[in-house]
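Hey all, sorry for the wall of text incoming. These are the two entities for the joint prediction.
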Amino acid sequence: MRAAMLAERIKAARRHDLLLAALTGLLTALCAAVRPEEDWQRAVGYSAMTVNVSLMNAVVMPLAMAALASRLWDMEIRGSGCRLLFTLQSRESLFDAKALRGMAQNAVICLTEGAVFLLAGRVWGYTQTPAPSRALWLTVCTFVVNAMRFYVLLALCVRSGTQVLPLAVGLACSLLSVFTAFMPERLALLTPWAYDVPLSAMRMHYDRETRITAYEPLAFPVGLLAAAAACAVLGYALARRAVRDQEV
Amino acid sequence: MMMRCIRAEMRKLRGAGIWWVFALLPVISAAYGTFNFMQNRAILTNGWYSLFTQHTLFYALFFFSPMVGVYAAYLWRMEHIGGGMNLLMTMPVQPFCFFAAKGAAVLAVTLLTQGWVFALYVLCGRAACGLAGWPPVQIALYMLRGLLGALAVVALQLLLSMVIRSFAVPVLIALVGGVVGMALIAQDAELCWPYALVLLGMNANRAQDQLSGGMGAYMLACLGFALLFCLLAQVLLTRRDVRA
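and here's what came out:
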């Protein structure tokens, strides 16, 4: 396994995947950050950011995960590298090394977002008390949902042998996420790739007359997180099987 | 020679996977826009104009640039695999001709995409939303203005796909560019960011024409960005050499 990890590290040389992951997390969180202009906005800064980050994740992350998955499988697609690789190392070790690397990139995205979430209040002067438990929940949920997207899209990369299809699916999921983010909660449960929104545990109420937005913290939906984790495990099994059954 | 290059690029598009992207994404965007329009008819009272904003807001903001990114990355893909770039550098054609030919091919697909979006818009307006008559001519002009904004995005995506060997990264950059564009639009700095120009040109987020009186600056921004990226590509391709 150590040798497989080393091989993946060599393949990733000059690819700057971790930097790309950090930049994706940073830009997504910065675009979701609330820059308050009025006192009431400062008073709900963290709550507003929770909703915004979840929504941005639902839109950006399907494509971001497709990009990361397709980059990880890039060398195997170019020049039909699988034939050579599968004779040099076990398919399982190749896949596990890729899965670990993918999760490392996912962790970088989530930790960057979590850090921006906590720092935003200091930079923009939120008066709301930060809730580390909410930041931790957001980070964990983003990690689990991203893992689900990543493995399913990696399976698609391996099965299709092309990079256009996973990216097209990622793009379509991103677009559909915009759709599902504003659907009734029960319907949104039918679209697991956009679980960031129901998992955010924060509800937004907008008053059209006063133009003030209120936020209602909800209990953490642990059951839904467990369902997302189960989908991630299923995605992992699908991707692993795709590599195992790959014909060369 | 240029025409031959364009024909070669067009040939690459035959039976390509990008046609799925071309067909599917505008349909999702149209379905979402129509659904949203039907749900909010009490507020959206501007008829064809309101439907247009619903159809094109997210399309222009988030998804137009990644779509163009997929088209551009697909056309550079062959050059990045198996020494294709060396082959390109040793052909008796100016390397920039290839860039321009790819630009023409991507623009042609982009034009088709805009046409497909417009066709879906008219179809949904008449069949699903029951809007009377035909859309105003101004909407067709908005679509054409969007195409002008697309010049900058096409040139930038071709440049990124030429420099970055990965297929996926330029597409991701396009999506992040769209997200950053959203933040810049909120600060009225759209003209400084190529990824925000399509939204501005298509007038996808306002009922009133945002470019009334400002068309000159918009055209200057679109053509300026396009020219800048083409020049950069020309410089990079001229300096590039065969890698043995």
